[in-house]
UniProtKB/TrEMBL annotation:
Domain of life: Bacteria
Entry-linked Pfam families: rhaM
Listed InterPro entries: Carb_Metab_Mutarotase, Dimeric_a/b-barrel, Rham/fucose_mutarotase
Full protein name: L-rhamnose mutarotase
TM helices/strands, residue ranges: none
Single GO MF annotation: racemase and epimerase activity, acting on carbohydrates and derivatives
Signal peptide: none
Length: 111
């Protein structure tokens, strides 16, 4: 099992942040997106927010392959529709390269 921590910013707009949170409630998520996450080998995913900064924690099984997940998502029209909807609320971190959204965080401490 491997853990990934990623970061992304939301647009600093209370209405957009509230709508983003609405879409991430269990009853409002899209089953096709949830299935794509689980099918990729992601066994646990949590998103935390402070202000407009998000942090995602993913736990994956040993078969998880980021490249394969990205290819599968690119070929899945429903996942692409979800990503398009989410981009309404999201903005890249200031140091992100062109086209990057969620950025992998580097672990700097462990107790």
């Amino acid at each position: 099992m491997k853990r990934y921590c990623l970061a992304l910013d939301l647009k600093d707009n209370p209405e957009l942040i509230a709508e983003y949170e609405y879409w991430h409630r269990a009853e409002n998520g899209w089953p096709e997106v949830r299935k794509s996450i689980l099918d990729a080998g992601i066994v646990e995913m949590q998103i935390y927010r402070t202000g407009n900064r998000l942090m995602m924690i993913m736990e994956t099984n040993d078969q998880y392959d980021e490249t394969a997940k990205n290819a599968s998502d690119a070929a899945n029209p429903k996942v692409q529709e979800w990503e398009q909807l989410m981009w309404k609320f999201q903005q890249p971190l200031p140091w992100a390269k062109e086209g990057e959204k969620w950025l992998l965080m580097e672990q700097i401490f462990q107790l």
